[in-house]
Design a protein that fits this description.
By secondary structure, this protein is mostly helical. The chain has helices at residues 2-19, 33-45, 73-80, 85-93, 120-126, 144-156, 160-173, and strands at 25-27, 50-53, 61-65, 110-112, 135-137. The protein has a three-stranded antiparallel sheet, covered by helices on one side. It has a two-stranded antiparallel ribbon with strand order 4-5.
């Protein structure tokens, strides 16, 4: 009975949303998985794009968009990195293409280097050096000069993996 009442609420809400020309999306209140599935079913039956956003169990909610107003693949990547729909809409209106959230790579693009381990005895004698996970992933879309510069810095230090992570983060933030 509660499930059917919620379904009727969602149907009514979506019908009203479709008639409102001033609104491009509607964010439902945070709910559990079952209620988000009801929203998804009802939205999809009306061919409306829908996605869930937020932390499971705390603030995860369904967001429904008007046809043609849903997030692109790059915008979805932005939303996965803690962006909000309202901020996405604002940035979209300002002309942001969200290109920096492009993540075109597959395992063919990854170079995996053997993990380097420092023994406990070496660690004790060499001070506070850490185990270094030398897994390196280079995105093909990255400028080759920037990639070479990062690789050179990585080779300069046993703590290069930490430097590499910072350089990649800085590169993506530009």
């Amino acid at each position: 009975e509660k499930k059917e009442n919620y379904r009727r609420f969602v149907q009514s809400t979506l019908d009203n949303f479709m008639m409102d020309d001033d609104v491009d999306y509607y964010e439902f209140q945070p709910t559990d998985n079952l209620h988000r599935l009801i929203v998804q079913d009802e939205a999809e039956s009306r061919t409306l794009p829908v996605l869930s956003q937020g932390v499971e169990g705390e603030s995860r909610c369904a967001i429904v968009f008007k046809p043609g107003k849903g997030p692109s693949e790059l915008e979805q990547n932005y939303l996965q990195f803690d962006g909000t729909v309202a901020e996405m809409i604002r940035r979209r209106a300002a002309g942001d293409t969200f290109e920096k959230y492009r993540t075109n790579f597959s395992m063919k693009d990854a170079k995996i280097v053997q993990r380097t381990r420092v023994s406990k005895q070496q660690r004790d004698t060499e001070g506070d050096e850490e185990d270094i996970d030398a897994r390196v992933v280079q995105d093909r879309a990255m400028d080759s000069g920037a990639a070479a510069e990062i690789a050179a810095k990585l080779r300069e230090s046993k703590k290069g993996a930490i430097m590499f992570q910072k350089e990649v983060k800085d590169f993506l933030d530009d």
